[in-house]
Design a protein that fits this description.
- The chain is mostly helical.
- The protein is built from ten helices and no strands.
- It has helices at 3-6, 9-32, 38-52, 68-95, 98-105, 108-119, 126-147, 152-179, 185-208, 218-243.
- Helix 2 (9-32) runs antiparallel to helix 5 (98-105), helix 2 (9-32) runs antiparallel to helix 10 and helix 6 (108-119) packs across helix 8 (152-179).
- It is globular, with a radius of gyration of 18 Å.
- The mean pLDDT is 81.
Length: 244
């Protein structure tokens, strides 16, 4: 049997479910950036997820110890896939429409294919090439539409920020392919999130010192909790499980 035939159906279900979650919280994040500054929002997300995943940090007896290579990959995974992705995505959705954000973020699979070809030497099939062309066309259309709006400059900048988020997420996926051997998906999720928390804490604390938390409604906190668990916990765990 070919390697393709050996892959279980639930692996694809995990990967698809992860992308559905990403799509859902990208749209909802536009509501959150209207309330929280970007770095504070990112810091709160990592902090909430860290509490929820505290039991995932410990190494299981069957797991190998993290090598220097693993630690380096975990840092890069968090830097690109957690910190830079979150900052680019949140700033992007604050400057453009939720519809444009959805179209641009849908280009993540195409970006993954291109980076897998460039960095991992994976072959790009005709269907993947066609999908990549469609993704590029969609981004071009929403960007041109944004320039015709009254706030065209802001929309174009927002679209560029979202495009940066797509590249960061694609790097996150490619790095994850090298990281999944010997480390459980739960532990990867927890450690990547802790790195993100550490990296964004200085800027998050700085913005927290000048923020009025008493003005935040309960519904907003509930939305933030969903965003934290979906973005840092569930979607990462599903993706890493599917890759394994």
């Amino acid at each position: 049997m070919t390697p393709q035939q050996h892959r279980p159906w639930w692996a694809y279900l995990c990967l698809a479910s992860s992308m559905v979650l990403v799509g859902s919280y990208v749209g909802l994040s536009k509501l959150l950036v209207l309330v929280f500054p970007v770095f504070l929002l990112t810091w709160l997300r990592f902090g909430m997820a860290a509490v929820a995943m505290i039991g995932w940090v410990r190494r299981a007896p069957t797991e190998a110890h993290l090598s220097v290579r693993d630690r380096r990959l975990l840092f890069l995974e968090s830097f690109f896939g957690n910190v830079l992705f979150s900052v680019f995505m949140l700033w992007g959705v604050s400057l453009t429409s939720a519809l444009a954000a959805g179209v641009i973020m849908a280009a993540i699979p195409a970006a993954v294919a291109l980076l897998s070809w460039a960095l991992l030497r994976e072959r790009i099939t005709g269907r993947v090439a066609a999908a990549t062309a469609c993704a590029v066309g969609g981004i071009a259309l929403v960007s041109l539409a944004g320039r015709s709006d009254h706030d065209g400059t802001g929309s174009l900048l927002g679209n560029l920020m979202l495009l940066g988020a797509v590249v960061c997420e694609a790097l996150y996926v490619v790095i994850g392919k090298k990281l999944i051997v010997g480390v459980s998906p739960k532990r990867i999720s927890a450690l990547v999130n802790l790195w993100g928390l550490a990296l964004v804490t200085p800027l998050g604390v700085w913005q927290a010192l000048h923020f009025d938390f008493t003005a935040i409604a309960g519904a907003t906190w509930a939305l933030l909790l969903f965003y934290a668990l979906a973005a840092s916990m569930v979607s990462v765990w599903l993706w890493m499980t599917g890759l394994q």
